[in-house]
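Quick illustration, no need to memorize.
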Amino acid sequence: MLQKPKCFPRYLYDGGAEPSDDGTKAVCSPPHQPRRRQRDAITDEGLAHFRAAYPGETIAMMICFITSMACCTSEDYRARFADNLSKQLPRIPAVKKAADFWAFVEAGRLLGDLHCDFDSAEAFPVTIAEGDLRLANIPDPEKFYRVEKMKFGGKRPNLDKTVVHYNPRITMTGIPLEAYDYVVNGKPALEWVMERQCVKTDKASGIVNDANRYAIETVGDPAYPLLLFQRVITVSLETMKIVRGLPKLEID
């Protein structure tokens, strides 16, 4: 369960509102519940802010949302406003040049597609220390791919993050260290995968979180945790390529 999360959605939904003529629309709700009304999370003031900064450019609310996504991932932005971001909600500035603005928009589109479709990303071609799995004889895939807890190679304090022991039968090597540069909420995305794709019992409730059950029962592929790790390598590398290609944040 998320505790006090901060969410910046594209749309907001008002409970029980009927459709109107003000640009909002009704959204289907479960039976016996009033319809919810969808409205833009980008305010008219926000839209006016960007339109005023780039007169003559055609800017819609979706474009404002997309450029905000890219700006928040900018290394220049995050470093420059680190103190503010630790205490306040992010504020999206208008860059000086329209060309730079549209570069942020394009980066935001690419990042949105990449992150929303992470499960469709190409699996990064790590090396399997035990040999090419495509050539392996795997009579029981559920047992073969079962993951309990992924671990880095080496020993603390000298962990080798180019190596991940997936389970006693599979060890991934050749993981590019730059993939760990993509950080989500203070931790590399790859380490989030390692932390969540496991078997873990909640001490308070006794509920067992078993990533293998999701892989088999929902995805229909017992190798899903392994493939997810490989896909997130690809997503991480592509994300950092896009982020590091952003223009310098010129706002003064």
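The first helix runs from residue 44 to 53.
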